[in-house]
């Protein structure tokens, strides 16, 4: 959705609520000057609550390396 800076300032609460459903592009003089998007949570962060006993230093890279290591050992 595209909105002007004036409209965004007047209705900021409305657009903050909407950003969960779609990106908001803020325009000034017909040109996009800002984009609001919903924060993206990494897969590792989203699973952290499920994996309470997992080491705190686990990263997407370490998971990838572990998976590749398992695959390479079977080939």
Give a concise summary.
The chain has 75 residues and is of the alpha+beta class. It has four helices and three strands; from the N terminus they run E-H-H-E-E-H-H. The longest helix has 15 residues, at 60-74.
Account of the protein in words:
With 75 residues, the chain is an alpha+beta fold. The protein has two domains: 2-36; 43-74, no CATH class. It has helices spanning 5-10, 12-18, 43-47, 60-74, and strands at 2-4, 24-28, 31-36. It has a three-stranded mixed beta sheet. The protein starts with a strand and ends with a helix. The model has no long low-confidence stretch (mean pLDDT 83).
Number of H- or I-type helical stretches = 4
Shape: elongated
* Structural class by secondary-structure content: alpha+beta
How far apart are the termini?
Answer: 49 Å
The low-confidence runs, each spanning 5 or more residues with pLDDT under 50, are: none
The residue fraction in helices comes out at 40-55%
Succession of helices and strands: EHHEEHH
Q: How is the main sheet built?
A: 3 strands, mixed
Strand content: 15-25%
- Which sequence of strands runs across the widest sheet? 1-2-3
How confident overall, as mean pLDDT?
Answer: 83
Oligomeric state, counting identical vs distinct chains: single chain
The tally of structural domains comes to 2
Q: How many strand units?
A: 3
Radius of gyration equals 20 Å
